[in-house]
Design goal:
Largest sheet: none
Shape: elongated
Distance between the termini: 12 Å
Helix content: 55-70%
Structural class: mainly alpha
Oligomer: single chain
Number of strands: 0
Number of helices: 2
Order of helices and strands: HH
Mean pLDDT: 88
Length: 50
């Protein structure tokens, strides 16, 4: 059940949230909000794989 939820959430994130790796964002120059989005996407991806 938990994995299905995170897979659904990952699909929503892919549509709504920007991909900073495609934009070649430098993490040292990223704003706090951009780091928050990166962290959220990482958390969802990590839980999708479990």
């Amino acid at each position: 059940m938990k994995t299905k939820f995170f897979k659904y959430l990952a699909k929503i994130n892919k549509i709504l949230l920007p991909s900073y790796s495609k934009r070649k964002l430098d993490l040292a120059k990223a704003s706090k909000f951009q780091l928050l989005i990166i962290g959220w996407r990482w958390y969802v991806t990590k839980n999708t794989m479990n």
